[in-house]
Specification:
Layout: H1 3-26, H2 30-58
Helix pairs in contact: 1-2
Length: 59
């Protein structure tokens, strides 16, 4: 994937993960809450990957 795609996918995962975490907390569903947190971490990693690709392309 390209730089922009990675950043967009990462941002999307962070949003969806945040929603999952919130729903999990509201419904006292620890598994859904944990999945949401994990998806947010995955999103952050994807965004970082996109930033690194951008930095490499700038060099």
């Amino acid at each position: 994937m390209g730089e922009f795609t990675d950043k967009v996918k990462g941002a999307g995962d962070k949003v969806v993960g945040s929603v999952k975490e919130g729903v999990g907390k509201a419904m006292n569903d620890k598994e859904l809450e944990a999945k949401g947190k994990l998806q947010q971490v995955k999103g952050s990693a994807e965004e970082t990957k996109g930033k690194v690709k951008g930095a490499i392309n700038d060099v």
